[in-house]
TrEMBL record:
Cross-referenced InterPro entries: AhpC/TSA, Thioredoxin-like_sf, Thioredoxin_domain, Thioredoxin_ResA/DsbE_sf
Name of the featured protein: Protein disulfide oxidoreductase
Sequence intervals crossing the membrane: 20-38
Keywords from the UniProt entry: Membrane, Transmembrane, Transmembrane helix
Domain Thioredoxin as annotated: residue spans: 42-174
Amino acid sequence: MSSGKATPSPMKRVFSWVKQVALFMLFAIVITGAMDIWRGKDIPRDNLPDLIGLTLEGTDIDIKALSQDQAVLVYFWGIWCPVCNFVSPAVDTMASMYPVVSVAMNSGPDDKMTKYLAHKGYEFETINDSNNDIARDWSVQLTPTLMVFKDGELIHYTTGFTSLPGMWWRMLLS
């Protein structure tokens, strides 16, 4: 005796599964894009203060000058930030392809930062903002915060967890 229901072919099941995954990814992109716009609404885009500093390796950094010919990723983070533990490896990967400058907020003295970066194997340039002076000037209140600059202007801004593809497309579109 037959139940009367036809079972879908394996090809139809695969197509249905791919369609559901594509719809979920589209939904996630729309939601995260809307969240980025909402979270970035308060960041000033004009008349930003200069982001100038000395890295832990002793290199002078001027984001405005560095971003004249290429996009630069600026990463505000802290060693105390749990989300940064997931984002920092992706930022380190980006540093092998693009100029990346990180600003370590309230993360302790230089020797502690240097040991932390060596322990984690991170090679991105880091300005130690041990007193949060730079973060305060830039009104950065959340970590991680990622900014992309091109020609001295802020092009992209996001906070919270950001994936490697998310960083990569922001750099490509800059």
